[in-house]
User: Fold these one by one.
Assistant:
Number 1:
Amino acid sequence: MLGAETDTVMYDMSSLHPNSSPKSSSLLHSQPYCIIERTSQVYLHLILRQLLRRNLGIHALEIARCCINLPYFPHVLELLLHQVLEEEATSSDPIPDPLLPRVVAFIEEFPEFLQTVVHCARKTEIALWPYLFTTVGNPTDLFQECLRTGKLETATSYLVILQNLEPIPISRQYATLLLDATLDSKKWELSKDIIRFLRAIDPNEEEMPPRTPLYSSSLPYASPIDVANKSLDSKMFVFSPALGGRSHSTNVSSIINESTVNTPLSRTKSDTKAIPARSSLRKSSGSRESVKDRQESGESMFFDIILCRHARKLLMACRLYDLGNFAAHLDFHLVAWLRKERTRAAKIEDFVTTLKRLHEDFQWPYPVASPALLQSLQKQTRNHSTAK
């Protein structure tokens, strides 16, 4: 708690005491009522940072594990990583003993590591991403780790990073893998967001290189091999408080924006000859529109194949409840699709097993025969056997 501030408010109490005398009502009006407002600020990441700087990783872990149940503990890890990253990545002077590898090794001791890295990256400028990911690892490996551990929400946050660091076909492939995982896990809203992300990808950018290369030779960052070799040493602070410092220096070069040169707008006669005719412009624009329409139709067919494949999977497993939720959340045309599949996936081969699975899926109780109905059935059976 940083402190408390008070504010005096005068309340009108005459409506609460209508039968009170004028003297008592004036006393009520003159009584002040104070409101206390608490102001607080998170400071745990500052303590952890100082302990890590002094190679006291064991004490930092003891303090952090005592606070792991606090609701804002993941935010503490984000603040710790973000502040160290901003300070070291924007430093113009060489850093003889960088703190970021020790901070990353410290955060790896907690299950919030993957979430902390992606939240910190999305709140940081893209120009600082190479310095971050040379220490925490390749974002593709982190994304695949999220898929293996079932952290699909965190994996969805990595898609924006992969879109900026990887070529468009590769990021589309990872998004498709994530879409299949979210559909299997019945996370319909998350699946809808991934489909929206895939539709927002510009097809014209598929042949372009990634906008932000992960490891650039022009930047004075450490190479991935050096970081991988030093990651084992950076993790030793947890078990050895007397670990010595490293002689690794890091600095960041400033990004220079080149100014554009204004060209004159006047044309010569030779320039006018190079201008194409309007008919050729119309033909080229028409060809571009046709290519764009073909690309959009190909994308829609790609999404239809994925959705139809999952719908067929649900129907063959007799999971009609999940199929209904799937169609409602993802705007899947279920009736038209069932008409197409009436002789394939929608065709029932074993009615008894299908009926049992329906009861299990919707949690319906089985019908129970009344005693009168049982007696009637037994009587009909006896009469039928006697008649024979």
Note: Residues 77 and 383 are 80 Å apart (CA to CA).
Number 2:
Amino acid sequence: KHRGSSKRMALQITENWIRERVGLKHDVLEDVRSLSLPGTFHEKISGLARSLRGFTRLKNLDLSRNAISSLEGLEHLTALETLNLYYNNIPDLKALFQLRHNAKLKELDLRLNPVTQNHHDYRLFCVHMLPSLRRLDDRPVRDGERRAALMHFTTDQAAALHEHKENRPSRYQHADKGAAVAVPRKQLVSSLGSRPTALDDDDCALINLISRSNGDVHRARGVTGSRVTRPAVEISESPQDSDELLTEVRKVQKIEVMASLYCRTLGLVVCLSVCLSVCPFICLFVCLSIHLSVCLSV
């Protein structure tokens, strides 16, 4: 059970609830690029249901400090790049497997979720499942982890993941009996043990520290997890609005060009009339003709 949660705090949110919470009056939900719905002491989201169905172009989603135990409702967010699930109630790898639909995820935060304590290989699981992942739990994903993930989650183990069965046994060839025996995936991964590496734990910790501090190891570490404490939304311009704006800009530019041409032509006619003593009525006729042509072209 999520710490501090109760029935009166748990919320099954809806689209209307999200609109009211962040003060969203924009009609086209596809224009929303970033959405922050952090939990509070009195209210915590327990389920998403179909509340995010209209946010199809969402790129950044913050659901930190809630009581979410199931990730159903995120599968249609195929453009999602950043997902913050810090301090929720994700229980196991089966729940995490729902994120396989979010193949563009680059940053994921699962800290203070039960899955990080219950499954020691959850990090390799996420790296294997999400090929675009660059940062997990405030730590960069290194090439060594990608290689380890490929070694741990291959062949029958990967097939078992795709069948979405948490305790499906893998087929493992026993050396003595020469027969295939069923071995749970977690037991198989544990039996592999740690492999030789040029880096020890202290080296990895130092690399992570340098990455978090951008090279300045003496700088105090800032607050991690989620700095967002209030609901927020970020909306980008829709393609239709951008096209209309571009049309207006081009129209203004055309007017400026024609006005400049008109002034130059008028000046030329005046100079000719003075220098060549041309009849003023002819000059007036030429000027009116130019003015009419400019108006019609605009």
Note: Residues 1-6, 164-186, 188-197 have pLDDT under 50 and may be disordered.
Number 3:
Amino acid sequence: MLELVAAGSLFFPGLYLLSKRCLKQVPSLQWDEGDAVIISARLVSSIQAIMASTAGYIIATSCHDIIEDQHWLTSSYILFAVPYFVYDIYAMFMCYRHKQQVKGHEGSGVGSALLNYLRKEFMMVLHHVVMVTVCFPVSVFWRQGKGDFFQGCMFLAELSTPSVCLGKILIQYKQQHTLLHKVNGALMLLTFFGCRILLFPYMYWAYGRHVGLPLHSVPLAIPLHYNLGAALLMAPQVYWFSLICRGAFRLFKRIIGGTPKPREVKEERERNGHASDKGYSPIEQRSE
């Protein structure tokens, strides 16, 4: 158990540091510290998401009995991945610090920046803390080996993360006008809705099929704390999906209405944390 936790504790920060160093030193790239920090954080998040969704697919498709069947990858990946959520809190803070420096707040102290970061990213930080302090012990100890199928389904929620990260990178480098950005935005909407919103009704439906109940009867047939847990997990996903939809709607309005007015461009940049006079495009608020 401890070996897997230790491996994850080395893998994710190590990958972040290696990526940042390569981005700064490769002759064809040579990005500055801030850009290397943001790209490296997105890269690590995407790799973790690919690993988690792959593990989830293997687990979910291997469990024919959705209650009793077990797969060794379930607990193993949980133990390996839990350090990622601790690391990612740090990585998000480093991204936030860079955005503040771009806006001209280099002089703010670490303590002040940390408090502002916690206020701005409260929902995401809370999500990560709950994953480590609640979901981790529940998944490893409280389940007692049951329900690996559902744990695999939860891993599949990470399938939307790579498109979220790519979208932010394209925005950072002012590629909002490209076909890639539009296609990636559509893919992000579909994967987020399918893997993070419809995921919960699907798991209710799968359990109902297993025990011979219609979907609408399942919430009344399972313990109340199961429904409460599902609601608490789904609530932030609905909130983040609403933010994605708002961003997609703004993009759609621009496509229909043509080039935005200078005032709209300035407001968009200020809203997303980048000053126009620094030569950077806006980076949208993190929604993964």
Note: The chain has twelve helices and no strands.
Number 4:
Amino acid sequence: ANPSDLAAWLLKCNSLVKKNYIDDLEVDEEGVGDVLLDENQVATVARPGTSFARPTTSQGGGGQQNLLRPMSKSGRPISGYMRPGSNRPTSGTGTGRIESAFKGNRPGTTRPITSGGRLVRLGTASLQATGGAFISSDRLNMKQLAQKKGIAQALCEYLLYVEHNPKKALELAAEATVLSNYTDWWWKARLGKAYFQLGLYREAEKQFLSALKSEDIVKTHLELARVYVRLDQPNNALDVFTKALEKHPHEISLILSIGRVYDMLNDTTRSMEFFRKVLAFESCNFEAVASIAAYHFYTDQPEVALRFYKRLVQLGVDNTEIWNNLALCCFYDGQYDMFFTCIERALTLADDSSLPDLWFNISHVFIAVGDLANAALALKIAVAYDSTHGESYNNLGVLDVKQGKPESARYNFSVASRNSNFLFEPCYNCLLYTSDAADDLLCVDLGGRRIIKKK
């Protein structure tokens, strides 16, 4: 082949990779098949603190009570920073409900059937954006291409990040690994990445461990830990991060990842220690600042949380969520003049996906000042924007009870439990406020849980 042609081909290939590159360490989404057909669960009943399915719940163990933190639609406490998979059930959580598995972030959206299906969508979109396929991977002879190291590496990156074809990338990486006499860490890492995208986590684990023996690379440690997170083995992931941190003590991504795992285990005391270490090295880290701010807010320190949220505004964050958080901090800190300014700014920037939560928070403010009529109006506005907002229905039921409307309250409690089966408040309130709940057929609709009336 003409060297000039090869140079032009290599330049275009690398350009397409740079254009379509995604840091997949920060994008980790499970499909419906991955959630419902999970074959990687080690223990059906794990000990608390050893699985994301059973995080630490006692405050003595360093965890916050989940009552104090809002829950996502998958039943997981929402932290101060939206992370990949933070609002979806992970492997082995045992939440295998088909209804919740198909639901996406917003009402009316669904997740792909498998994580591989998502890669197919990305590959199709990237090829359409580039005007068609640059390389016909089905016709390539991987054994011959593997002998040309520079071209083979560029082609492997193209298959992973542009075409999103992990099977072909795996074939190429396997041939190149054999040619390198199993000593090249780069090809082992690509083998692990391809195995991970194909859902073969144990094979990916072996390749990443082998790559680390050949060369100690921070990103390989992160990818190996991601395998353990997907396998629902947080302690193994923490061990990987800890060992990597001994060799790379100032690597922020490792410290941040340890804080994330502890936060997913609801061990907020330890997670805050690592988030503060991140700020010691990088004072403008958004995730660490937001997580610490949320921690102080839910531990009844709104004045401290307010300082951290102001820091985020100084760093250039300007969205509905930050102004909503500032408004709540100002209200509970007694700065009522600033509260109205912040909440108006939040309403100005809000879209249909964030308005339900925003009006739900406004209803809490009305309840705090004793204006129950406007609180009910705010909750009805939240329900108008999102008809599946279970928290709003639950609070509407409580307000109906206070207004002497037991039938309306019972209906709101049943709707809340059907739409948000992870909430226990609707069942508790229905039992507490409606004495004949056990004799009513609606009790069966409360998330499939039967309420038994005390005699």
Note: Confidence is low (pLDDT under 50) at residues 89-96, 437-455.
